[in-house]
Design brief:
Strand 1 (41-44) and strand 2 (47-51) form a beta hairpin. This protein has two domains: 1-38; 41-183, no CATH class. The N and C termini lie far apart (78 Å). It has seven helices and five strands. By secondary structure, it is mainly α.
């Protein structure tokens, strides 16, 4: 009986400590960095557009496209199949991506196709692409919108983020933020 009482007391004490810890961490995060603590959400007025941390599908060719998602950008279950480069399913998906790229971007030679536009990330929800991937899409977007390529180049440059702490990762462009800025530019064609 004594063992049961000690076990129950210890369990209750640990549950209370865990609850206090979670509340403390949440409170500190809300005070120190509320935007990040709440999911880095982006709003247009009061309308939620998305999160800058989770990739989204942009189906219109008038917008910049992100990386391939093997989970259809479903944030409820991130992940991706861990196929080897020789896997037939992987080869077919990559070939389909290349075929789609050629159809949507006939003015861009295949040798200028950045690898991150035909490969998916580990989570399948990567919100960023390389600056080269953004620049490779400029001819298509300029042709469809009438926005001069030079203006789109400047937009990509403005939305290119550097390495974290100047050391980690690579330069990257957040596709959602870039497309929001693109949608605010006056298009010459409709």
């Amino acid at each position: 009986m004594k063992t049961i009482i000690i076990t129950v007391r210890t369990s209750i004490l640990l549950m209370v400590l865990i609850l206090v810890y979670q509340l403390a961490v949440t409170g500190i995060a809300q005070a120190a960095m509320p935007h990040k603590a709440n999911g880095s959400l982006i709003y247009d007025g009061k309308k939620l557009i998305g999160s800058e941390l989770i990739g989204q599908s942009f189906t219109s060719p008038r917008y910049f496209q992100g990386r391939v998602s093997s989970i259809d950008y479903n944030a409820a279950s991130s992940g991706t199949p861990n196929y080897a480069p020789s896997n037939p399913d992987m080869l077919k998906r990559v070939q389909d991506s290349i075929t789609q790229w050629k159809a949507n971007n006939p003015d861009v030679p295949l040798r200028q196709l950045p690898i991150d536009l035909i490969s998916n990330s580990g989570s399948g929800l990567d919100p960023d692409i390389s600056p080269a991937s953004a620049r490779a899409q400029i001819p298509r977007i300029s042709s469809l919108t009438g926005i001069p390529a030079e203006q789109l180049e400047q937009l990509v440059k403005e939305h290119t983020a550097g390495r974290d702490l100047g050391l980690f990762g690579e330069e990257h462009v957040n596709v959602l933020k870039l497309n929001i800025a693109l949608s605010k530019l006056p298009a010459n064609k409709h």
